[in-house]
Amino acid sequence: MTDYQDDEYQDDLGPSKSQLKREMLALQEVGRRMLDLSDEQLDSLPISDRLRAAVVESRRIRKHEARRRHLHYIGKVLRSEEDPEAIERGLDAFDAGSAEHTRRHHLAERWRERLVTEGDPAVAEFIDYCPSADIQHLRNLTRNARKDAEKQKNTGQARKLFRYLRECIDTVE
What we know:
It is built from ten helices and no strands. The protein is mostly helical. The protein folds into two domains: 15-94, Diphtheria Toxin Repressor, domain 2 (Orthogonal Bundle); 99-172, Diphtheria Toxin Repressor, domain 2, CATH 1.10.60. α4 (49-60) runs antiparallel to α5 and α6 crosses α7.
Protein backbone atom coordinates (compact mmCIF):
# COMPACT_ATOMS: atom_id res chain seq x y z
CA MET A 1 0.00 0.00 0.00
CA THR A 2 1.36 3.39 -1.03
CA ASP A 3 1.32 6.30 1.37
CA TYR A 4 0.74 9.55 -0.55
CA GLN A 5 1.82 11.65 2.39
CA ASP A 6 5.49 11.00 1.66
CA ASP A 7 7.68 14.02 0.94
CA GLU A 8 8.45 12.90 -2.61
CA TYR A 9 4.76 13.15 -3.55
CA GLN A 10 4.18 16.53 -1.87
CA ASP A 11 6.24 18.29 -4.53
CA ASP A 12 4.01 16.99 -7.32
CA LEU A 13 0.76 18.29 -5.83
CA GLY A 14 1.37 22.01 -6.53
CA PRO A 15 -0.56 24.79 -4.85
CA SER A 16 -3.71 23.96 -2.96
CA LYS A 17 -7.17 24.70 -4.30
CA SER A 18 -7.58 27.41 -1.65
CA GLN A 19 -4.33 29.06 -2.72
CA LEU A 20 -5.41 29.05 -6.36
CA LYS A 21 -8.71 30.65 -5.38
CA ARG A 22 -6.95 33.36 -3.33
CA GLU A 23 -4.73 34.16 -6.31
CA MET A 24 -7.77 34.29 -8.63
CA LEU A 25 -9.61 36.64 -6.28
CA ALA A 26 -6.54 38.87 -6.03
CA LEU A 27 -6.41 39.16 -9.83
CA GLN A 28 -10.12 39.97 -9.93
CA GLU A 29 -9.49 42.73 -7.40
CA VAL A 30 -6.77 44.14 -9.69
CA GLY A 31 -9.36 44.10 -12.49
CA ARG A 32 -11.91 45.83 -10.25
CA ARG A 33 -9.39 48.58 -9.48
CA MET A 34 -8.77 49.03 -13.21
CA LEU A 35 -12.47 49.74 -13.77
CA ASP A 36 -12.20 52.92 -11.68
CA LEU A 37 -9.40 54.42 -13.79
CA SER A 38 -9.85 57.15 -16.37
CA ASP A 39 -9.04 56.39 -20.00
CA GLU A 40 -5.73 58.27 -19.76
CA GLN A 41 -4.69 56.29 -16.69
CA LEU A 42 -5.73 53.04 -18.33
CA ASP A 43 -3.66 53.89 -21.40
CA SER A 44 -0.57 54.42 -19.25
CA LEU A 45 -0.74 50.89 -17.78
CA PRO A 46 1.32 48.11 -19.41
CA ILE A 47 -1.67 46.02 -20.56
CA SER A 48 -2.62 44.25 -23.78
CA ASP A 49 -5.34 45.43 -26.13
CA ARG A 50 -7.44 42.40 -25.16
CA LEU A 51 -7.41 43.37 -21.47
CA ARG A 52 -8.04 47.05 -22.30
CA ALA A 53 -11.08 46.07 -24.37
CA ALA A 54 -12.36 43.83 -21.56
CA VAL A 55 -12.05 46.66 -19.01
CA VAL A 56 -13.83 49.12 -21.30
CA GLU A 57 -16.57 46.56 -21.96
CA SER A 58 -16.98 45.86 -18.25
CA ARG A 59 -17.53 49.55 -17.50
CA ARG A 60 -20.76 49.58 -19.45
CA ILE A 61 -22.19 46.41 -17.85
CA ARG A 62 -24.74 47.29 -15.15
CA LYS A 63 -26.25 43.95 -14.13
CA HIS A 64 -24.60 42.52 -11.03
CA GLU A 65 -24.24 38.92 -12.19
CA ALA A 66 -23.02 39.89 -15.66
CA ARG A 67 -20.46 42.23 -14.11
CA ARG A 68 -19.28 39.47 -11.76
CA ARG A 69 -18.83 37.05 -14.68
CA HIS A 70 -16.95 39.69 -16.63
CA LEU A 71 -14.61 40.27 -13.68
CA HIS A 72 -13.88 36.53 -13.77
CA TYR A 73 -12.98 36.94 -17.43
CA ILE A 74 -10.69 39.90 -16.66
CA GLY A 75 -9.00 37.80 -13.95
CA LYS A 76 -8.49 35.00 -16.46
CA VAL A 77 -6.91 37.39 -18.99
CA LEU A 78 -4.67 38.81 -16.26
CA ARG A 79 -3.61 35.33 -15.21
CA SER A 80 -2.85 34.07 -18.72
CA GLU A 81 -1.50 37.03 -20.68
CA GLU A 82 -0.38 39.84 -18.40
CA ASP A 83 2.22 40.74 -15.78
CA PRO A 84 0.03 41.37 -12.71
CA GLU A 85 2.89 42.79 -10.61
CA ALA A 86 3.65 45.52 -13.19
CA ILE A 87 -0.04 46.39 -13.43
CA GLU A 88 -0.36 46.57 -9.64
CA ARG A 89 2.64 48.91 -9.45
CA GLY A 90 0.97 51.11 -12.05
CA LEU A 91 -2.29 51.08 -10.11
CA ASP A 92 -0.47 51.91 -6.88
CA ALA A 93 1.06 54.94 -8.58
CA PHE A 94 -2.46 56.32 -9.12
CA ASP A 95 -3.51 55.87 -5.50
CA ALA A 96 -2.93 59.15 -3.70
CA GLY A 97 -2.11 57.42 -0.42
CA SER A 98 0.21 54.77 -1.78
CA ALA A 99 3.90 54.56 -1.03
CA GLU A 100 4.74 54.64 -4.75
CA HIS A 101 2.74 57.84 -5.24
CA THR A 102 4.46 59.44 -2.25
CA ARG A 103 7.89 58.36 -3.50
CA ARG A 104 7.29 59.89 -6.95
CA HIS A 105 5.93 63.06 -5.37
CA HIS A 106 9.04 63.48 -3.22
CA LEU A 107 11.30 62.71 -6.18
CA ALA A 108 9.63 65.45 -8.23
CA GLU A 109 9.99 67.88 -5.29
CA ARG A 110 13.70 67.12 -4.98
CA TRP A 111 14.23 67.61 -8.74
CA ARG A 112 12.32 70.90 -8.65
CA GLU A 113 14.47 72.21 -5.79
CA ARG A 114 17.65 71.18 -7.60
CA LEU A 115 16.53 72.73 -10.87
CA VAL A 116 15.61 76.03 -9.23
CA THR A 117 18.80 76.27 -7.14
CA GLU A 118 21.39 74.76 -9.52
CA GLY A 119 20.02 75.71 -12.95
CA ASP A 120 21.44 74.26 -16.18
CA PRO A 121 23.70 71.57 -14.67
CA ALA A 122 20.67 70.08 -12.91
CA VAL A 123 18.65 70.36 -16.14
CA ALA A 124 21.31 68.28 -17.91
CA GLU A 125 21.19 65.66 -15.16
CA PHE A 126 17.39 65.51 -15.33
CA ILE A 127 17.57 65.03 -19.12
CA ASP A 128 19.91 62.08 -18.48
CA TYR A 129 17.39 60.70 -15.98
CA CYS A 130 14.39 61.31 -18.24
CA PRO A 131 15.46 61.42 -21.91
CA SER A 132 11.88 61.91 -23.14
CA ALA A 133 11.65 65.35 -21.50
CA ASP A 134 11.45 68.42 -23.74
CA ILE A 135 14.72 70.25 -23.03
CA GLN A 136 13.58 73.67 -24.21
CA HIS A 137 10.31 73.50 -22.27
CA LEU A 138 12.11 72.29 -19.14
CA ARG A 139 14.69 75.11 -19.32
CA ASN A 140 11.91 77.66 -19.81
CA LEU A 141 9.96 76.36 -16.81
CA THR A 142 13.13 76.29 -14.72
CA ARG A 143 14.09 79.84 -15.70
CA ASN A 144 10.61 81.16 -14.83
CA ALA A 145 10.60 79.35 -11.47
CA ARG A 146 14.07 80.78 -10.68
CA LYS A 147 12.88 84.30 -11.48
CA ASP A 148 9.94 83.84 -9.11
CA ALA A 149 12.26 82.59 -6.39
CA GLU A 150 14.68 85.50 -6.84
CA LYS A 151 11.86 88.07 -6.72
CA GLN A 152 10.20 86.18 -3.87
CA LYS A 153 6.96 86.09 -5.83
CA ASN A 154 4.54 83.25 -6.34
CA THR A 155 3.08 83.36 -9.84
CA GLY A 156 2.68 79.58 -10.05
CA GLN A 157 5.79 78.89 -12.10
CA ALA A 158 7.24 76.50 -9.52
CA ARG A 159 3.95 74.58 -9.55
CA LYS A 160 4.04 74.34 -13.37
CA LEU A 161 7.59 73.03 -13.18
CA PHE A 162 6.55 70.48 -10.55
CA ARG A 163 3.64 69.21 -12.69
CA TYR A 164 5.89 68.81 -15.70
CA LEU A 165 8.47 66.94 -13.63
CA ARG A 166 5.76 64.60 -12.30
CA GLU A 167 4.64 63.83 -15.87
CA CYS A 168 8.22 63.07 -16.92
CA ILE A 169 8.90 60.92 -13.86
CA ASP A 170 5.70 58.94 -14.46
CA THR A 171 6.86 58.11 -18.00
CA VAL A 172 10.27 56.93 -16.77
CA GLU A 173 9.02 54.60 -14.05
